[in-house]
Design brief:
The protein is built from 9 helices and 17 strands. It has a 6-stranded mixed sheet. Strands 13-14-12-16-15 form a 5-stranded mixed sheet. Strands 2-5-10-11 form a 4-stranded antiparallel sheet. The radius of gyration is 22 Å and the shape is globular. Bound molecules: ligand 2P0.
Amino acid sequence: MPETNSHNVSMITCTAPVNIAVIKYWGKRDEELILPINSSLSVTLHQDQLKTTTTVACSRNFQEDRIWLNGKEEDINQPRLQSCLREIRRLARKRRNEEDPNAEITLSHRVHICSVNNFPTAAGLASSAAGYACLVYSLSRLFGVDAELSLVARQGSGSACRSMYGGFVQWKMGERQDGKDSVAEQVAPETHWPELRVLVLVVSAERKPVGSTSGMQTSVQTSKLLKHRADSVVPARMDDMIRAVRGRDFATFAELTMKDSNQFHATCLDTFPPIFYLNDISRKVINLVHRYNRHYRETRVAYTFDAGPNAVIYLLRDHVPEFVQAVRHFFPPESNGGEFVKGLPVHSASLPDELVRDIGMEPTPKGISYIISTKNEIRVKFFNVKNARTSGWHKKRK
Ligand code: 2P0
């Protein structure tokens, strides 16, 4: 617990990872508590490549709660931010009364929150998941809350509850009306499958046309396919996926991942009016993956797409250099553009002529802006604690 006195500002900094679902969450049964219509499962990505860093400060001199996202002040009164702040303060008060009546940080102190991503916010890279996971974790450290935090993060953004843990994480939909059993749980730690690699193929960094929150609302209202998916497909698929992850069965993991992504986008098309997240480049990536796998008569590579056109590729370490070379061949980058592959280094590889022939697609120059090469990782991290003698700390970051 950080200390403060009448002149000081207490600060805490945490970082949180992005997660990419292999069984997708799409649709709520309770909009306010953010309770989903089906369980979901994701892989937590490495924070060296994709992370949110949040600093929260509190002081008796602060007049009101305030928040800055990527250097710009945002409205603190958004209902979801308020839910998280209210819930953490409630848990802190409960704990204080029970165990720690002399804790030094006064709960009436206002907080200033400063959050930055090391990746483009609106690129469809699950920034709200890392953002809310980081916010909730930082606030919990500041106020000394030691509770099931995925419950709180879920009320900021559904997918955020999965970023509270590392490795492979399921969000159990739960049954209770109060949402107390709708929590994230680790299925396997990040050390479980060290050969697993992730490539984010960044197709477009533009803001997505339909946001997830309103998109899934329309899907729940209009798509019978979504109801069928939630009731009759996902329950068994979750079991199969957990088994595949625990058994490190890549072929099964990969096939389930691709089928679930395809079904999620099918429910988007079944939504009325329909929602299109995939574009021509996304579909070319899908074809590339299937033709690559067909050439080897083995499922070596899987794709998944969220609410945007970027592809996230899962594959094993040994297959990364050749597959990246295939992406480079079929989506030639600008010759004078910046580095095409960011993140974990990828060795160069040659592309067998028969493979190029079997794939048989016309190259699409500049179809993919860049690749982020990464792997899976641990949970939210507690970074540092500082007592600062200034209340203008956040201004330096603007
Ligand atoms: C997922 N997505 O499971 C799915 C797949 C997008 C496609 O979770 O309304 O931003 O904040 O709960 O968490 C995006 O939904 O929506 C999402 P809210 P969220 O990752």
